[in-house]
Amino acid sequence: MKRFFALSRTSHGVLDLAAPAFCALLWLGGFPQASVILLSLFTAFAGYTAVYALNDLVGAKVDKEKFAASGINPGYSVEASAQRYPLAQNLLSFKSGLLWMGGWAILALIGSYLLNPIIVFILLAAAVLEVVYCLLLKVTYLRVIVSGAVKASGPIAAVFVVDSNPSPYFLLLLFSWLFLWEIGGQNIPADWNDAAEDKRVNAKTIPIRFGVEKAGLIVIAATALTVVASGFLPLISPAKLGLPYILISLLIGYALLVKPGFQLYKFKEGRYAARLFDNASYYPLAQLTLISVFLIIPNFIG
Questions:
Q1: CB burial readout 261-275, b (16+ within 10 A) else e
Q2: CA distances to 127, 172, 179, 203, 207 from 136, in Å
Q3: CA angle 14, 19, 13 (to 5 degrees)
Q4: How many CB atoms lie within 10 A of CB 227?
Q5: CB 108 within 8 Å of CB 43
Q6: pTM of the entire structure?
Q7: Cα(163)–Cα(281) distance, rounded to whole angstroms?
Q8: Mind giving me the DSSP string for 202-217?
């Protein structure tokens, strides 16, 4: 099973579950019913498992080219498995990977329909965009935009679990926050860490296209804007989160995004890109923990 979970980058996928959970709590201003929480967690896990596997299935051929000379790079602490890219390492057959992805996709679609049929279309759109993202590897660095949309799809879907008719303006604010986090904290650092392998296959990424100086500036801008956007997120919630919540949220963003982003720009080394990626991966979990505490405390006080 380790090979299958490596295909779906499950250690990273589990961390990603925090983003939709946070967005649902933020939007609702409280905790949903236990049955909704359980079904949502299962559906989200199935969706992330399927989409991450889809990424490796579509990119299997290119991955083999990338790592043919030097082998699989060390990766990050959240994706530290020696069995990363099992298709590229011939640890798993394409057919087995396809069946694994398809099974989880079916479960995700069923769960999505039960939660809100609209989420089915969001999931399908995310899958299509994931394929597009993979196919654009050798075409344009603008694929980063597609990546931001894919990463935002899960949390946006979570909003439709708790609100069947959400405000488009608040959705745009939430999307912008998620988009910026993905660009500055995940996508560019990952491409930075894989730059040597990407050059080998003539990939088009921001670090390759603009160089590390400009890529670093984009990282700083994106992470800083992510933190700024987070300061406006309480406007979405019916819960009275208050100034202490905002200040702690900004501090979390500084510690996990801005500070490691600046270090990457300053030192321009791959290990700092990996560090930023790891820190950014825990950012939604930190936000989920924060809002959970602020939603639970009033119940004890009351």
A1: bbbbbeebebebbbb
A2: 14, 25, 18, 9, 15
A3: 20
A4: 23
A5: yes
A6: 0.94
A7: 26
A8: T---HHHHHHHHHHHH
Q: Is 297 left (phi over 0), alpha (psi -120 to 50) or beta?
A: alpha
The answer to whether 178 touches 148, Cβ cutoff 8 Å, is yes
Distance CA 123, CA 203 (A): 27
Which residues of the chain form beta strands (DSSP E)? none
Query: Which residue intervals of 163-269 are DSSP H helices?
Result: 168-181, 188-193, 195-200, 206-230, 242-253, 259-267
**pLDDT, one tens digit for every residue, the chain (302 residues):** 788 888 888 888 899 999 999 999 999 999 999 999 999 999 999 999 999 999 999 988 888 887 766 666 666 666 656 677 788 788 899 999 999 999 999 999 999 999 999 999 999 999 999 999 999 999 999 999 999 999 999 999 999 999 999 999 999 999 999 999 999 999 999 999 888 888 988 999 999 999 999 999 999 999 999 999 999 999 999 999 999 999 999 999 999 999 999 999 999 998 999 999 999 999 999 999 999 999 998 766 65
Report the C-alpha gap between 260 and 223 in whole angstroms: 10
Classify residue 154 as exposed, middle or buried by CB count within 10 Å of its CB (0-12, 13-18, 19+). Answer: buried
List of domains in the chain: 2-301 (1.10.600)
